[in-house]
Amino acid sequence: MDSKKLLKRILTNTNNIKFQDFISLVSGFGFELDRINGSHHIYKKAGVEELINLQNVKGEIKPYQVKQFLTIIEKYNLQIGEEK
To answer: What are the CB-based long-range contacts (under 8 Å, 24+) for 7-13?
Structure first.
């Protein structure tokens, strides 16, 4: 799914988001995979203090993790396609 379309979709509903689609979105904001610890995929981005912790549960991302990510992109005013 296109990152911009997915972002519009999750702004209205954080449920039933495919894990792989969400990984693409997180990467589109410039986050990089730091490590995998069990089922936890940890992403980081220079200039952002918080780490993004994502879990694949039956092919979907947990809704609270989507909300945490949205809070971070709002806090740092991040844009899709941003490097850093």
So the answer is: 7/80, 10/66, 10/70, 11/70
Is the whole model's pTM more than 0.85, yes or no? Answer: yes
At what angle are helices 19-28 and 3-12 packed, to 10 degrees?
Answer: 110
Give the dihedral sign, CA 25/28/31/32: positive
Contact of 73 with 57, CB cutoff 8 Å: no
For residues 43 and 52, give the distance between their C-alpha atoms in angstroms, rounded to a whole number.
5
CATH superfamily of 3-75: Hypothetical protein. (3.30.920.30)
Encode pLDDT of 53-83 as tens digits: 999 999 999 999 999 999 999 999 999 986 6
* Annotated domain spans of the chain: 3-75
